[in-house]
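Changelog-adjacent note: as of this version, every example in the card shows the full chain rather than a window. The one below runs 66 residues end to end.
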Amino acid sequence: MTATAPVTDRPELLTADDVAAYLRVPLHTVYRLHRENRLPGLRVTAKNLRWRRADVDAYLSALADH
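Full-length structure tokens:
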């Protein structure tokens, strides 16, 4: 018998499209926030970025604190 990971509706790593939908902003805004180091991302390959859900939630919390 093998153990399986719990099924979740919310993946831990998000694509740029996922982040844009989550934040309800245009896709170019996600890339701008990343370029400005306001929304840290992970480089998966030379051309692909992913964002941790916790980092996106932290960004939203920081906005709410202002």
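Structural remarks: Residues 53-65 form the longest helix (13 residues).
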